[in-house]
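Thanks for the sequence, V.! I ran Aspartate ammonia-lyase right away. Repeating your input here for the record:
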Amino acid sequence: MENESRVRHPARVDAPHVNYASTHTAPLPVRSATRTETDSLGSMEIPADAYWGIHTARALENFPITRRPIAVYKDLVEALARVKQAAARANKELGVLDAAKADLIERVCEEIVAGNLQDEFAVGVIQGGAGTSTNMNTNEVIANRGLEIMGFEFGDYQHLHPIDDVNRSQSTNDVYPTAIKLAMVFGVKRLLHEHRKLTEAFARKGVEFADVLKVGRTQMQDAVPMTLGQEFSGFAHTLAEDLDRLGETIPWLNEINMGATAIGTGITADPRYAEAVCRHLSEITGVQMETAADLIEATSDAGIFMTLSGTLKRAAVKLSKICNDLRLLSSGPQAGFGEINLPPRQAGSSIMPGKVNPVIPEVVNQVAFSVIGADATVTAAAEAGQLQLNAFEPVIAHSILQSIAWMTNADYTLRVNCIDGITANTSRLAAQVESSVGVVTALTPYIGYAASAALAHTALTTNASIAELVVSAGLMTKEEVAHVLSPGRLSGLVPVTGVINVVQPVETDRD
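Predicted structure:
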């Protein structure tokens, strides 16, 4: 008789902005009753109701480092279940695993994908052993849930064994890298969705602010005029570039080494297994996987992780630069730029009444700093691999999965809590353009550089407007100046074509 009473159904929120890399600091619950399990190192007492077993228990003792279990990465847990499910199907197809056991493993894997048993994935995200503890944790959870379904006690592995059955034809060294690549594909697709929506939000602001003239700046100094719409459209195009770059990493992540087993030679696996498991994994996930041409190379190489991490860093740095601009453009509101208004999200000071800070761009900046640091970690870990295996894939996986999750959440909160609500301070922008010396640049084709420079100097020292000075000097009429300094021409939206004759200064007799 099947026993469903112990299956945990933790709440799972699927909103795109959920932080899938939240910190878990609470210790595992104290369980009074125990069962005894034995491995090659001896025996241990395991909580009687724990779905994990002795290998997980040893890892919990050995790696109390981050206090963050792999359960915080739901994509990774799902990917592990999918890999085990594909392996069970392949083993069943090849006749190397009893069909009833394979079907039971597949059933449990579906439960895990549905969100059950999440808390049983308890080993720390940073661990020695190249991911062995993660693989063992997965094997034990699947085996014990299978035993529970069959009506046997936890740990009664003669009926369904974590290694002989759940791990059949596998090694940590092909399961773990395949699972983390698949998890990264899940995460990158979610990130692409949010990054695209953020790009579209900036583009909408570009359209909204298309006719709002402002002063451009280079090196923090006033430059020539532009529109606020052009500025926001530029932000949108900057972000759009990273949609392509991030998307390009997915085909590389789809290359897996299942069937490699320990080092790439395929020892303990049927020669047909690599093709079968790859085919089943593709069918199950809807992600077209491909077996690497050289399984020995694929088992030791971490190149794709550096590529993905570097691409994430690129996107994060560019997004952070945009957030820097948003903070500058909204600075003040009285003594700063004050060109745009960010939505007020919360009180900004415990001592200064009425102060509101740009907290959303600030938090996105901090996400970018973290992604930059994570990339350095991935680079070091990839370099540190030795011979036929990289032992440091756990920190690579943690660093990249956290970066993906945090970037996804950052894109969401920047869009919803900031960009969508930005307004333009049109009166201030108009006043700045009218008083800007930078508009004289638009007149240089008509009056020459020397005259323009002299007028700019006069305007700066007298606070007179450029337009007035040009007219009073007799260089152009009021109508001509108004035409040349129209918003469309100043921003480049109306192109100037044809030959422009420079006004020659009138020579006068000197006494």
